[in-house]
Design brief:
By secondary structure, the chain is of the alpha+beta class. The chain is built from seven helices and eight strands; from the N terminus they run βααββαβββααβαβα. It has helices at residues 15-51, 61-69, 90-94, 151-157, 159-168, 186-189, 206-216; strands at 4-12, 70-73, 80-83, 124-127, 130-135, 140-149, 178-185, 200-205. The strands form two sheets. Strands 4-5-6-1-7-8 form a six-stranded antiparallel β-sheet, sandwiched between helices. 22% of the residues are buried.
Length: 219
């Protein structure tokens, strides 16, 4: 079932926690991209193994990419699906040849290049419909998800989204710090009752979050 939704939040951190949070997040992003390269090589090898012995001209390499893009990860207690190309970098690296019109050629894949999986660390990260923005001067971190079908769900399940909230959950919120995530969706907006349909607080963090939540329900 479709659900068009959006959300936005800002979080004020102490001097020590802001530095710690940003360092942890940036380090985590680097690890994700290093892992993405290893997964891309795994994906590449799976595609070649499946296409081995087949006539190259009749092989649908893009279809094989889609077939092996998602695998079942059994390394934990529960079997879960794992995305081998979460950043869409493997497809760009393996099928990097283009025709005279600049269109991608889905011929036999090329081995992924490690250099294609290097990210330049910066203060703004964008993925899916989401963005994360660091403001060093304010000691604030901004989270924003543009309105789209299940946009908030996809952003939260994306590797960078998971990393962001994992790091946020480890912050030691002290007096005068914290924040909230505010959002809305198409079903709530259909509420025609008194007070219905308005934007609402989805998550709270620290003393600031608790106070804003208290004020939201004090009228």
């Amino acid at each position: 079932m479709s659900c068009y939704e959006w959300e936005s939040g800002s979080f004020l951190l102490s001097v020590a926690e802001y530095s710690k949070f940003k360092k942890s997040f940036m380090s985590g992003v680097k690890t994700l991209y290093t892992s993405a390269y290893k997964d891309a090589v795994t994906l590449y090898n799976k595609i070649l193994a499946e296409g081995k012995g087949k006539r190259l001209k009749g092989t649908d390499w893009y279809n094989l990419y889609q077939k092996f893009r998602t695998v079942v990860d059994t390394t934990s207690h529960f079997s879960v699906e794992k995305e081998l190309d979460p950043f869409d970098l493997a497809i760009d690296s393996m099928f990097r040849k283009v025709d005279e019109n600049g269109r991608r050629i889905f011929g036999k894949p090329l081995k992924p290049r490690k250099g294609d999986f290097v990210i330049k660390i910066k203060n703004v990260f964008q993925f899916e419909e989401a963005s994360i923005n660091f403001s060093d001067k304010e000691r604030k971190v901004y989270w924003d998800v543009s309105e789209n079908n299940h946009a908030c769900d996809r952003a939260a399940e994306h590797p960078i989204g998971k990393l962001f909230f994992k790091c946020l959950g480890k912050v030691n919120w002290t007096r005068g710090t914290g924040g909230v995530i505010v959002g809305n969706d198409e079903y709530r907006q259909d509420d025609r009752e008194a007070g219905g349909g308005s934007n609402y607080i989805k998550q709270t963090y620290g003393p600031i979050g608790k106070e804003k939540n208290r004020l939201a329900f004090s009228f």
